[in-house]
Amino acid sequence: MKYFLSLIIILLVSACAWFGYQYYRTDYVPNKHIRDAVVSQNELFLEMKPDVSEMNSDSTGILDSCREINSNCVGWISIPDTKIDFPIVQGSDNDFYLHHGADDEYNYEVGCPFLDYRCNREFKDFNSVVYAHNMVDDMMFSDIEKFSDYEFMSSHQKGLLTLDDGVHEIDFFAYLSVMDTAYAYKTVFITDKECDEFTEYLFTVAKHTMNVSEDEIKATDEPHLILLSTCTFEKDGARGILAGIIS
Question: How many separate helices (H) and strands (E) can be counted in the chain?
């Protein structure tokens, strides 16, 4: 009987040790790497953030503090009352910054907000698309999902985009729930008709719209749209997009 009980105890201890090791290896360690990477990125962002407090119409080099760390920095996006306050970088493809941070170091898939590689780095295109992960703890672009709620969006219709020529206001006008292959990710426009058709598309598929009308965008001389995109997890390939126009 003692032998049998001892065997049971050994088996139970071994099973607990095995499950504990599996938890440590597959859950604790990866999550710790991510948490550490998030802390590291936040510290880096504070170091990179441009100081616009004394900026005037003749100011230049606004993004110098960003580019001292990463020459691929093209802007800074911030949305009041959210945790979105990040540099925007641009790589040679749309994959690198899904896995690397603002210092170009691998950061356990935390990534960094980045401008579509096909877009003009000065945000002079008709449509500029910026991507970032939807992370736990409201990191990266997770707060974009909040705009799927009409009440939240109606009280948060403005954002700020800092570029080399100054701080631009963004008027958010639509929230879209789409797939990752959606027409919303079109970045090359040749004719005014294509721009008008794209504008109509945004207003047609939007979950809700506000602030800026379809006709206002069409009537604007050389409008510059910005689409902030992130995963939303309803199903594979689901994306949430917050659309705005840069002033």
Answer: 7, 9
Q: Are strands 114-115 and 127-131 parallel, antiparallel or unpaired?
A: antiparallel
Residue bearing the bigger pLDDT, 66 or 23: 66
Task: Please tell me the distance from the alpha carbon of residue 44 to that of residue 68, in angstroms, as a whole number.
Answer: 12
Spatial separation of the C-alpha atoms in residues 120 and 107, rounded to whole Å: 26
CB 211 within 8 A of CB 173: yes
**Paired tokens of 20:** 């504990």
Cα distances (angstroms) measured from residue 196 to each of 30, 120, 123, 211: 46, 20, 19, 18
| Sequence-ordered list of residues with C-beta below 8 angstroms from that of 76, at least 6 positions apart, any chain | 49, 50, 63, 66, 85, 86, 87, 88, 161, 162
Count of CA atoms in the C-beta half-sphere (13 A) of 94: 14
Residues 6+ apart with CB under 8 A from 138: 83
User: Beta 208-209 vs 85-89: how paired, if at all?
Assistant: unpaired
In tens, the pLDDT along 203-232 reads 999 999 998 999 999 999 999 999 999 999
- Backbone φ, ψ for residue 86 (5° rounding): -135, 155
**How many other CB atoms are found less than 10 A from the CB of residue 78?**
16
pLDDT of the residue at 69:
92
Cβ neighbours around 126 below 10 Å, total: 20
Quote the distance between the C-alpha of residue 61 and its chain's center.
24
Tens of pLDDT, residues 95-129: 999 999 999 999 888 899 999 999 999 999 999 99
